[in-house]
Amino acid sequence: MLIRYKKTLEKIAMGLLSFMPNEKDLKKLQQTMKQYESEDDWQLFLWKEEDIIGLIGVHFFDESIIEIQHVSVNPSHRQQGIGKAMVKALQELYQDKELRPNVDTAAFIEKCDVKKDII
Predict the structure, then answer these.
(1) Per-domain boundaries in the chain
(2) What is the pLDDT along the chain (119 residues), one digit of tens a residue?
(3) What is the distance of C-alpha 88 from the center of its chain?
(4) DSSP structure class, residue 80
């Protein structure tokens, strides 16, 4: 289930976000978290089953386009379709908008064969 990020979940979100190659540096990671917390057009969602095991972050460009900025799944839960499920849940949540990957998420979106459903 996709849930919206709350400040109380910051440590979990930072842990998941740190699995992204461009978020390894602590200062960069803190800047990214601040951006999600302070800018209305940046939204972070967490994937919860029994525990929170995934994260997807998006940037709302305008009324019709959402760009997927981050997709991360706890390594012990990978290869189970969770990343794809998060993207599909996001599609259902924002049916009237076009989802696009960014440079960092494009390879994942293509790999899990979701891109054709998005664009």
Answers:
(1) 2-118
(2) 999 999 999 999 999 999 998 898 999 999 999 999 999 999 999 999 999 999 999 999 888 999 999 999 999 999 999 999 999 999 899 989 988 999 999 988 877 665 445 54
(3) 12
(4) S
In CATH, the number for domain 2-118 is 3.40.630.30
Give the residue ranges of DSSP H helices in 19-114.
Answer: 26-38, 82-93, 103-111
State both tokens at 11: 């440590």
pLDDT at 108: 86
Report the run of H or E that residue 42 belongs to, with start and end.
strand 42-48
Report the b/e string of 50-61 with b at 16+ CB within 10 A: eebbbbbbbbbe
Distance separating alpha carbons of residues 89 and 83, to the nearest angstrom: 10
Distance CA 63, CA 49 (A): 30
Position 112 scores a pLDDT of: 62
Q: Is 113 helix (H, G, I), strand (E, B) or coil?
A: coil
